[in-house]
Amino acid sequence: MSEHDLENKKINFIKINIEYYFIFIITALLLVVGMVMVSSASMSFGESYKSDAFYFIRRQMIWSAISITALLVLNKIDYHKIAKISNFLILIAIGLLALVLIPGIGVEIGGARRWFIFIFSVQPSELAKIIVIIYLSDILHKKYRNIYQIKSILFPAFIFLLIITFLIFMEPDYSTAIIIWIVIFIILFIGEVRFKHIAGIMITWGIFAVGYLFLESYRRERIIAFLNQNSEAGSSNFQVNQSLIALGSGNIFGLGLGNSMQKYSYLPEANTDFIFSIIGEEFGLIGTLFVVTLFVLFAFFGIRIAMKAKDYLGRLIAVGITSLIVIQAIMNISVSIGLFPVTGITLPFISLGGSSLVTTMAGAGILLNISKYKIISSSEENE
Q1: Which are the contacts of 251, defined by CB distance < 8 A and separation ≥ 6?
Q2: 31 located within any domain
Q3: From first to last of its 383 residues, what are the pLDDT tens digits of the chain?
Q4: Is residue 383 domain-resident?
Q5: What are phi and psi of 266, to 5 degrees?
Q6: Which pTM does this prediction carry?
Q7: How far apart are CA 43 and CA 48, in angstroms?
Q8: Within a domain: residue 107?
Q9: Is there a contact between 347 and 275 (Cβ–Cβ < 8 Å)?
Q10: Quick check: helix, strand or coil at residue 5?
Q11: Is 125 domain-assigned?
Q12: Of 112, 129, 143, 268, which one has the greatest count of Cβ atoms within 10 A?
């Protein structure tokens, strides 16, 4: 329901919807799972690289505290107030993304320049995901009366979105750019933009994205490795094979917390990109199904929040945040079980990584804020 359809309705902050409690509990459970698994998967890594088994655990605890604070603060702030400064936020995102590309400021790890150091390492592309959702939702909200005229929303919105995409490509971070654009298309669809316009943008973007995909040899290698999974050649196949070994070793009930063998440098990125495999190894099929169920429930109640949102803006932001978190989870889990090429996407709420955790928790906080509002008619209020 659009805010423009609510002339005979009264919108009030009457009571918290039931979805609020479910999203809060699911988020808390995922955060706990993440802290437990990061603790288990990071001790050997910390011992090997930092001579301190608890190095990464302490860092994740600090980021968890920051992310919980972000959730609680954004849970209290009306999402309309956040949307009002979306133009300012998008400029901040562009500035931070440009900053990491400057030698001496941006930190290069594994051939990618995605971070800069501000007390801890910060990854601006993670922050950009949430900002893009709020920015685009606000643009569509303001342009609702002209929603069928693509030119009315094409500028300046898509200029800023293309700048952000270009900067993320320059890092390079192809997977993040793809996720952002998947979420953009979902928001445009839910926002009632004409399908022919969405299809036109999608085809143009798809041609560009596929062309860019094959520019770099490591991306070509990942695609070839995925299509030829029987081959042992290439680091991508090695990671997936070790991931499958971890999942298979866990069987139904797992080897027990802390008993993973793959985390001892056999499985690269065991505490980040492939932490789902460690969950499977230590807690078995039961543990992986528990995590998958939590994300399915997050998707279900996130969609319900969007359907019950008091206005068009709330619906778009709720859909965008829910899509972002769930799509990332699907991609990460799909990589772990060999159904998708290796992407470098972390598992939301669970993988080691401060920027990712703060972003997802901030998104959950905004989702909780949207779920607080309900639409009532004047007659209902009198009752």
Answers
A1: 284, 285
A2: yes
A3: 444 444 444 444 446 678 999 999 999 999 999 999 999 998 888 888 888 888 889 999 999 999 999 999 999 999 999 999 999 999 999 999 998 888 878 777 766 777 777 666 788 999 999 999 999 999 999 887 776 667 777 777 888 999 999 999 888 888 899 999 999 999 999 998 888 888 888 888 888 887 777 776 666 777 776 767 665 545 567 888 899 999 999 999 999 999 999 988 888 888 899 999 999 999 999 999 999 999 999 999 999 999 999 899 999 999 999 999 999 999 999 999 988 888 889 999 999 988 999 999 999 999 999 998 755 443 333 33
A4: no
A5: -80, -40
A6: 0.89
A7: 9
A8: yes
A9: yes
A10: helix
A11: yes
A12: 129
What is the number of domains present in the chain? Answer: 1
Structure tokens belonging to residue 176: 């993040």
Q: What's the token pair of residue 214?
A: 């094959």
What gap in Å lies between CA 219 and CA 216, rounded to an integer?
6
Domain range for 235: 3-378
User: Alpha-carbon dihedral of residues 346, 368, 143, 179, nearest 10 degrees?
Assistant: 10
Spatial neighbors of 89 by CB under 8 A, at least 6 apart, are 82, 131, 134, 135
H or E, element range at 10:
strand 9-12
User: Sign of torsion, CA 355 356 359 364?
Assistant: negative
Beta-ladder partners of 217:
none
Token pair 């079980």 is at which residue?
337
User: 109 Cβ partners below 8 Å, 6+ apart?
Assistant: 115
For residues 115 and 93, what is the distance between their CA atoms, to the nearest angstrom? Answer: 13
CA distance 357 to 26: 15
Distance CA 362, CA 81 (A): 15
User: What angle in degrees, to the nearest 10, is found between the helix axes of 354-371 and 124-142?
Assistant: 30
Angstrom CA distances, 372 to 17, 44, 276, 297, 315, stand at 6, 43, 32, 18, 13
